[in-house]
Amino acid sequence: MRSPRIAVLVAIAALSTFVQASEGWLQDFEKAKAEAASENKAILMDFTGSDWCTWCIRLRKEVFDTASFKAAAPTHFVLLELDYPQDQSKQPEDVRKQNEVLQQTYAIQGYPTILLADAQGRPFARTGYQKGGPEAYLAHLEELRGKLEQRDASFQKASGATGIEKAQALKVALDVVPEEMVAAHYKSTLDEIRALDPSDTLGLDLKFGFIQALRDLHVRLKGKVEQGGEAVRAEADKFVAERPKLAANQKQKALLDVLNFLMPPKDNATALKLAVDVQALDPASEQGKMAENIRAQVEKMQAK
Fold it and tell me: Do 91 and 20 fall within a single domain?
């Protein structure tokens, strides 16, 4: 007969298969930042839907679970798994709440999304599924990590400069980072550039005005979530209607922001219609292709 102590240990071991992250991956964002700071590494953040997202599952199987990736990736990255499963019963409440906050903070619009961030949590690159297996993916990550080195070299140059020269060096640093990340995660740097260049000779306000407006939309959408998917979609449609001069890709970015609040699918009908509409605006754009993937995922789920 099994002793009570052994029975408890077996129960804990069984539970751990559900609540622990994949081997070599953390689930705690603050711990990941602390490790990155102490070990002088970047953070690789995997936003995934482990039990519903086809491309997430493929990425893990083809890359993250391979021996070569497990051996090489931790050299430069602290690995952080941020899971958004449909079956949330197997996920600890504190992890679920943390991941919801991070989904909003980083404006995640599709899965898998891989963000590379510094030890402060400031992202400098975004990617997702890539063909070619672990070696190709590791080479891709190394190329993206080069952006961090470029960014920091410009920040270092700025630290020894003043006036417009400093503003220019800071701008060069931000030019390395995807535009949508700058307004959300480099506000203090943008404010410093504005103070150094009040007449906007470098064009920062012109460049980031729309992106900042998207961040404001993001806040308003958050307040509409409890009213349902249609209310969230209506707020985004209003944003687009008030800006008739938006380019197609800008409209796509605004509408895709809605999916932060609908994915993993909480309102399949609204999510599907949104994906179709976004794709129709420009099927060949990055946003159009993202919408096509989301549409396929939602249709597959509806067919079950």
Answer: yes
pLDDT at position 263, please?
65
Per-residue pLDDT tens digits for 94-132? 999 999 999 999 989 889 999 999 999 999 999 999 999
246: domain range? 223-303
> pLDDT class for 264, splitting at 50, 70, 90?
low
Identify the sign of the CA torsion 23, 25, 26, 32.
positive
210, part of any domain: no
Say whether both 11 and 90 belong to one domain: yes
Rg (CA), the chain: 21
Question: What pLDDT digit, counting tens, does each position of 10-19 carry?
Answer: 333 333 333 4
110 and 259 in contact (C-beta within 8 Å)?
yes
Contacts with 174 (C-beta within 8 Å, 6 or more apart), sequence order: 151, 182, 186, 189, 190, 193
Domain count, the chain: 3
**Is the domain of 196 the same as that of 245?**
no
36, 136: one domain:
yes
Asked whether residue 256 is assigned to any structural domain, the reply reads yes
φ, ψ of residue 197 in degrees (nearest 5):
-135, 65
User: What's the rounded Cα separation, in Å, for the pair 203 and 167?
Assistant: 11
pLDDT beyond 60 at 24: yes
> pTM for the whole thing?
0.67
- Single-letter amino acid, residue 93: E
Paired residues of 43 in beta bridges: 78, 117
The answer to whether position 217 is within a domain reads no
* Domain annotation covers residue 214: no
Give the pair of three-digit tokens for residue 20. 């622990």
Ordered strands of the 123-127 beta sheet: 77-83, 42-48, 113-117, 123-127
Q: How many residues does the chain have?
A: 304
pLDDT band for position 216 (50/70/90)? confident
